[in-house]
Amino acid sequence: MYHYAREIFPEASFLKLGMTYPLPHALIRKFAEGVEQLLVIEELDPFLEEQIKVMGIKCRGKDIFPAVGELTTAVIEQSAAEAGILSWEAVKGARQVAPSDLPGRSPILCPGCPHRSTFYILNKMKEVVVAGDIGCYNLGALPPFNATDTMGAMGASVGVAHGFDVAGIPDPFVAIIGDSTFFHAGIPPLLDIVHNGGKSTVVILDNHTTAMTGLQGHPGIDVKLGGEPATEVDIEAVVRALGVTDVHKVDAFNVNEVERAFKKAMAFDGPSVVIVDGPCFFVRPGPAGIYEVDGDMCNGCGLCFRLGCAAIVRSEELDGQERTAQGRD
Amino acid sequence: METMNFLITGVGGQGTILASDIMAAVGLAAGYDVKKSDILGLAVRGGAVVGHVRWGERVHSPIVPEGRVDYLVALDPGVSALAQSGASRGYDLD
Question: What is the count of residue pairs from A and B with beta carbons less than 8 Å apart?
């Protein structure tokens, strides 16, 4: 934001603060005395502006710049022009609005991803509310799955699900968390669920790595962040040690098995954990290897496109109908 | 001189970041003050990749200010159209 402001006010003097609490009063006062007009450019609350005013220094800030959102170059420029500080002639560049029919380029789950089964199933279970976490499985929130309702921080999903439970929401719900995020911050809230008599179902997606950030190690596998050997901690053992008795461990690549486990766990009157076990494709391909569509068996129904797998594409010879690769209807 | 603004857009695997690195190196070799910033990360998962490169006498913002792209290197038509409109910094998660 500092650099964006320097773009817009190339002739102005700048005081950039590295340490903002406590404020360097003498430094600010000296700077203010050397300028005609003092503008405070800060994102969100007028934290600095108010303190500077309390010091008795005249300045402007939130009467010009918005109190919410990122102060991009365009926002700073526009706000300054509207406040009459910059002339409109100086505001260069066209501000076109994106045509609304342009498709976004969303990321998708990789071909061979073990998470696909979970989100395919959750997408079918339309009434289930899904508390999501942070990781590759975030992509289950996007089309064609649209199967995540909340997304906070690493480890948040388990606590959120417990909150749903305690608040007494009428809908069925699950928490989704990964192996890495479970170890990071999912253990204490799972303990909360057990201790407080919750009935949540926690689905732990164990892909044997921390995939989204680049396949780093975590306590559940035998390597540390830098690749050094580490003790492998067993998730199922941890979950049982926390007092969860209804534990299901299923093969991520067996869709029916995963679906049965979800249903059983959600019906169970008490805390349940489903461990969906399947390696990330970048760790190693799934146990059955790589599949191919059998052209002779394909009847062109298009159901496979609902999986959102980029490796499944329309065949000109076998299927002449128009369909989108991501199965959007 | 007015700062020259380059935007390189594509999807994962097309060499967008490599192009952005090369553009930055060329600018430095030509004696300009250069700043660059790339939006990457979800390239492996088929998401958009955008490289901002700026050459000037004294460049402040590493991100090309909205609506001020001078040269657009478009490796993927979809991402490039979004980027060209100036409304998106890279990709939209909706």
Answer: 89
